[in-house]
Amino acid sequence: MTLSNRNYFFKAGIIFSSAILIGIAVVSNTLLPFYPDTVLRAVQRSQGILQRLTGNFLSPAPYVPFAAIITSVVYSLITMILIYYFFEKTQAPEILFIAFFTLSFAFESARLIIPFCSARELPSVYLIAAYRILIFGRYFGLFSFFVAGVCAAGLELREPGNVILLILGATLIVALGIPINGLSWDSTLCLISGYASMFRLVESCIVMITTVSFFVSAYIRGAREYVFIGIGAILISLGRSLLLTADTWATPLPGLAILIAGTWFICNQLHRVYLWL
Asked: In the chain, how many H helices and how many E strands?
C-alpha cells in the first residue's frame, strides 16, 4: 500500500470522527434530559476494573456515559489528526492499524441510541442494530491493535488491503453472531449480551498477545523503542478499559489520561523507528 493510499484512510477517519462529533452536538440537548432515568433503569453495573475494586462504594452517575462517549469521539478525532500530521510522509506499517484502533473509539457514539429511543419512543430493533455497530467498532479496533503488534514482531504485510478485509470479516462475524438482549442495559448504556465472560477473556488474550508482540519485536529487531511501545500498549489497553466502562466521575479523566499517555508512547516511538527509513 502506497503512502498516498494509506493517507486516504487517515483522511476518511478524520471526516468520520468529525461527522460523529457534529451529530452528537446536534442531538445532545434533546438526549441529556433522558439520561438520569435511562441510567436508573440499568439492570446491572458495568463490569469494569474500578467497579470490581470498589464494589458498590461508588454509585453510577447519570451523565458519565455521555461524558465518556464525547471523550472517546474527541480522542478519536484529535488522534487521527495527529497521526495524519506526523506520519503523512513516514512509512510505518503498524501505524495504519494503530489509526484503526483509535478510530474505533468513534463508534462509542452508538451508545446514544438508548436515550434516543427513549426520547423518540422507537422499537428495540434500533437498539440491537446500534449495539451491533458498537460491537463491530470495538472488535475492529482490537483486531487492528493485534495486527499492529504482529507487524511489529516481524510479519510482512505485502497486501495490507487483504488484511483489512480479513479484519472486517472477522469483526462482522462477531458483531452479527453475538446474542443481544434488546430490553436491558448496564450502567454505561451498553445492552446486555450473551457470552460476556467469554468475550472479556478473548479481549484480554488479544491485548496480552499484542503487548507481548511489541516486547518480542524489541528483542528481534534490537530496537529499544519497541520496549516503550510495549509499555504504551499496556497503558492504552488500561485507559481504554477505564474509559469504556466508566459509570462514575472517578473514571473518565484518569482513563483518558492513561489512554493519551499510551498513545503518545506508541506513536512517538514508532515515529522514531521509521523516521529515517
From this structure: 11, 2
Residue 88 CA to residue 60 CA, distance in Å, equals: 42
Helix (H, G, I), strand (E, B) or coil at 185: strand
Lowest mean pLDDT among 8-12, 50-54, 246-250: 50-54
DSSP codes, 241-252? HHHHT--STTSH
Instruction: Using alpha carbons, select from 158, 180, 27, 206 the residue that is nearest to residue 35.
Output: 27
Contact 154, 214 (CB under 8 A): no
Using a pLDDT cut of 70, give the percent of the chain over it. Answer: 97
For range 162-190, the mean pLDDT: 92
Secondary structure letter of residue 224 according to DSSP: T
DSSP 238: H
The answer to whether the predicted template modeling score (pTM) of the entire model surpasses 0.90 is yes
DSSP lists the bridge partners of residue 271 as: none
